[in-house]
Write a structure and sequence with these properties.
The protein contains eleven helices and no strands. It has about 220 residues and is mainly alpha-helical. It has two domains: about 10-65, Arc Repressor Mutant, subunit A (Orthogonal Bundle); about 70-215, Orthogonal Bundle (Tetracycline Repressor, domain 2).
Length: about 220
């Protein structure tokens, strides 16, 4: 007879995500999760099979927060924008988890669900096969890239340094050597992360729309050959 479960999956997800948010991926283990839950590591084996399951707990905790039900639109461009923006918001709140989302996505029902919704919206533009794959990966890369860029880019914050201090430091670089970095640092002082993401997403979607129109215009010519 199986032992009764001591913790709900939601409790496990919440505790695991809190550890990763605080200590990074290296801070998550059966031992540290058990300690946070106030139990012994062996107890967790009634809930979690091993490291792969720990990783999925964290991925599901983040992506499970995404609600794209309101994103359903007749226009595929608006739907892609809504789904991508929702994903960006939840991922940006937990950037430490991005590597797990990228490497465990095919094992996570939550990730597969949002991916299917995004691909389905893109497919309504007329894309299929490789063209649909490229479009999907382009949107995915934008979402994950924008979520990470605040931590990993030239204008990212470092330990103990505020965003304002980083911008001030980059703006003080020699302009003759770094003319473009100093220019965008000045713009960053007045910019907001969500506005940047939305603008970048709009540019990508506009490009995808042009590509879809070009592909449709070429089909009759190819068929006539």
């Amino acid at each position: 007879m199986a032992r009764p479960r001591k913790f709900s999956r939601t409790q496990l997800q919440t505790a695991a995500l809190a550890l990763v948010d605080r200590d990074g991926l290296a801070g998550l283990s059966m031992r540290t999760l058990a300690a946070r839950l106030g139990t012994g590591p062996m107890t967790l084996y009634n809930h979690v099979g091993g490291r792969a399951d720990l990783d999925l707990l964290v991925v599901e905790a983040v992506v499970g927060k995404a609600d794209w039900s309101h994103a359903k639109q007749a226009d595929w461009r608006r739907e892609v924008r809504g789904i991508a923006t929702e994903m960006w918001r939840v991922v940006r709140a937990h950037p430490q988890v991005i590597p797990l989302i990228l490497t465990r996505r095919s094992r996570s029902p939550a990730v597969l669900g949002v991916a299917e919704a995004l691909v389905a919206a893109r497919a309504r533009s007329g894309r299929s096969g490789r063209a649909l794959l490229v479009a999907f990966r382009a949107v995915q890369a934008l979402v994950m890239g924008f979520a990470q860029v605040e931590l990993a880019g030239p204008l990212s914050t470092q330990a103990g340094e505020s965003p304002t201090a980083v911008i001030r430091r980059v703006r003080s670089l020699p302009r003759e050597q770094f003319p473009h970095l100093t220019q965008i640092a000045a713009a960053a002082a007045r910019s907001r992360a969500e506005a940047e993401f939305r603008r970048g997403l709009d540019l990508l979607i506009a490009g995808l729309a042009v590509g879809a129109r070009v592909s449709r215009s070429r089909r009759p010519a190819r068929a006539a050959r």
